[in-house]
Amino acid sequence: MPEGPSLVLLREALQPFAGKRVLRVAGNSRQPISDIGGKTLRRVRNWGKQLLLEFDPFTIRIHFLLYGRWLIDERKDATPRLSLGFTRDREINFYACSVRFLSEPLDELYDWSGDVMADEWDPAQARRKLRARPDRLVADVLLDQDVFAGVGNIIKNEVLHRIRLHPGSRVGALPARKLGDLVREARDYSFDFYRWRKAFELKKHYQVHTKQTCPRDRHRIRYVKSFGAAHRRAFFCEACQKLYE
Hints:
Blueprint: H1 4-13, E1 24-26, E2 43-47, E3 50-54, E4 59-63, E5 69-72, E6 82-85, E7 91-95, E8 98-102, H2 106-109, H3 123-131, H4 138-141, H5 153-162, H6 176-198, E9 222-227, E10 232-236
């Protein structure tokens, strides 16, 4: 599943299409995608893991789910969920994703202060949301898009290792300082992810995700295939990541 930083990179890559008119529409989406034909792409935005293509009078929301993919000026040997052509040679193709029309103003639908990579990000609000979820595991709350929009499983695993926090810790058991570390690093690591992904070197910076040995203390990394209520893969070091219960 693409995480927030990858959506920011996609948003940046699609900026040349803003202000351009859609000349061709195709795809196997059950949404009325033919309505996009002839419309001008006014603005490209993202909130967390969602791509938002603003037209008038609607917005197309693209969610890439677990296996979604996009190609710019390229095609794969499969029918796209949505294909938008702007000139003879320029097009955007979306595969294995969710396509939805939104009619409401985006500022009414999205809390931009909850996106860890947005300029509007509000860490104080994130701390308040965490304190309202004392019984949740930190592994689950990091993936809660209402708290940390854009954070995915890679970021979760790496953030928890970076701040030496066991994924099975309860939010309500965390000292105030550790709670602050969680909020701060969710954003900081997301920007590190963005820079590494942009430089095509993300995987070489993994500390625990898909690894076998902790680089900090050389203990064996524990792998759990389905961890917490989110049932996502967890990689963590039981020697240096403290459990708060």
